[in-house]
Structures are given as C-alpha cells and as structure tokens.
Amino acid sequence: MKNYIIKLKFTSPVRFGPDRAGAGLTLGNETCHSDTFFSALCIEWLKIFGEAEMNEMVRWAEAGHFILSSLLPWKGQELFLPKPVLFLEKSNTRKNEPAYGKTLKKLKWIPASAFDSYIRFLKEGGELPFSQEGNKAWSEVLIARAAIARDKETMPYVISAYRFPFGEAERHHQPKEPLPETGLYFILKIDSEELMDKLMIVLESLGLTGIGGKKTTGLGRFELAEEPIEFDSNSGLYDSDTALGKMLDRTGEFYMSLSVVAPSEEELEAFEPQESFYTLVYRSGFVESASYWPSPIKRRPVAMFGTGSCFKAPLCGRILDLSSGGNHPVYRYGKGMYLGVKI
Fold first, then answer.
1. pTM listed for this prediction
2. How many CA atoms lie within 13 A of 153 on its CB side?
3. What would the mean pLDDT of 97-121 be, rounded to a whole number?
4. CB 230 within 8 A of CB 237
5. pLDDT of residue 55
C-alpha cells in the first residue's frame, strides 16, 4: 500500500452542512466527512467511467485497497489533524500552571508536526506546544441568495460557507502582503496505479463540478494545489507529513480515526466502549443521484463514529448500502483510517 497526501485549493467558497440535523443553511462545517467525500467521488466516477467501473472501485475500497480520510485543513507546509477525543489523567500538577480549559474546549485542529507534543501536554501539563495565532486556514462567509419560483414572490435566504484563501484565487482581496496558501487535504492509502490514475481524472472533473452543498450556485469548486505527495514512516517533504507518516504506520496505546467509521456487526459485538473515547455523528440527507428515484428522496439515516475518536484497537469498518427501493445502491463510506497515539 502506498500513502499519499492530496491537497485541494478552493477557487470559490465551499459549504458543508453541520452534523446537527435540521440546523438550516446558516450553520455549516469547515471540513468534509470521509463518507460525504466518497459519495461525491462515486457520483463523478459513475459519470466518467460508468457503473461497472464505479462498482469495481467500491469493491476495492470495501476490501481495504482504497482507503481515504476525511477532508482536513492545511495551511502552507502545515497539515492539521482533528483534536483527539481523549481524556488523560495528568501525571503531575504544577503550581502556577497556565489554565487552558476554555482554550482546549474551543480547539478543533492540531498541527501534525506538534501532535505528539500535544499528547504529552495532555498527560504532563505545561505550556500548549503550539501557537494558535495564524493557524486558522479559513474564514466563514454568509452568502445571500434568492429563491425564485413562478407566480411566487422572490424569497431571499442566507447560506453559511467557508473561504480558503489561496493566493490569486482570492482576487477580490487586495492585501499588502501575499495571502497564505490554504485548503483541505485528504490522506489516501492505495495499492493500484491504475486506480490512482482514474482517481486523478475524477478529482479534476469533480473540481469543476464542485463538492458540498449549493454547487449550482457556484460553491465548492477546487483544483489540486500540487501533485500528490507520496510519504511513509521514513520519508516526507516537510515536518508535518514526516510526522504524519510516522504516526500513520505505528502502533500505539490508542488509535485515532481520521475518517468516520461504520463498524461491522462483529466489530460492534466485540467493541468495549469503556476502553475508548469517541463521538457519534448522525448521518442523513438526500440521495443526490437523479437516476435513483424520480424525485428527491432521503437516504436511510445511520450513526457513525466521528473523526478524532480514539479506540484501543482499530475498527476496520465497512461500506454500507443505505438504499431503500431505489434503482441502484446508495453507498455510505465507513472504512477506518487511523494513526497510532503514543501516551
């Protein structure tokens, strides 16, 4: 298996819906869960290569030969990882130690190059091992739109979206200094050169189609920020991917998920919740495929382990079929990708 980091730069704002059902258009997420991203890849794969090739890709993924993470933030040379859902008893308490309670509560992303130092900080206390200033890779924007229907009054509404500055892609800004390069990336584990070549074709096409919500209004367009970066535990271009390569291949006291996970029935029976730290995300929504049903129809909802959950042993996960009487399967990606957490 080869490991790749694939960095996306966004040429327009992008909208990802919130995890909370019924939250409306004025709330959103800055990143995209792996199941949503995989569904977008499936739809684009179907358009380009046809149903047989798309089903073959899904079979490769189900067998563990094509595994991807959620979309995570990057800024410059730094890659960010989700804050681990991990509660550790401190080995010692120092006098006059800074209080980070409110800071940690708001913290969502950890620089990959400082991840091990952050775990030591949770265990031993002391100073937070990285500065939060300048780490934010995005800004939230509220976009006004109008719903136009025949014989009805035009109704304005507002969409929450996120902007990832990337140099000249932000032409409406005229800063005194160059804008930082930011975006989202995903980690890919793959063992087929042919499948990798097809993925690159699909990503180029998907960048024109867009990902996320409200694509018909121009949101979610992206390009590759650079060529895919191959990495492992012994190589890397920067501190961040070097650190990531070591953590991805190592064993640990815990295993932190970099994707949303849908465990198999056997894994659920063997799962011991008291030994793990995790969140659950409720996944629902409409089937995007126009060929599934003549009119929009909701897919069956499912609960999954969230990105950042920490387990004593990694759960392999599975790909679910959430179809319900439609014309084809509705896949929900739930395969696990993990990094080893050393305590």
1. 0.88
2. 3
3. 85
4. no
5. 93
Q: Which H, E and C letters describe the chain, residue by residue?
A: CEEEEEEEEECCCECECCCCCCCCCCCCECCECHHHHHHHHHHHHHHHHCHHHHHHHHHHHHCCCEEECCEEEEECCEEEEECCECCCCCCCCCCCCCCCHHHHHHCCEEEHHHHHHHHHHHHHCCCCCCCCCCCCCCEEEEEEEEECCCCCCCEEEEEEEEECCEHHHCCCCCCCCCCCEEEEEEEEEECCHHHHHHHHHHHHHHHHHCCCCCHHHCCCCEEECCCCEEEECCECCCHHHHHHHHHHCCCCCEEEECCCECCCHHHHHHCCHHHCECCEEEECCECCCCCCCCCCCECCCEEEECCCEEECCCCCEEEEECCCCCCCCCEEEEECCEEEECC
What is the structure's pLDDT at 169?
44
| pLDDT tens digit sequence for 227-255 | 999 998 887 778 899 999 999 989 999 99
Rounded to the nearest 10 degrees, the angle between the axes of helix 193-209 and helix 34-49 is 100
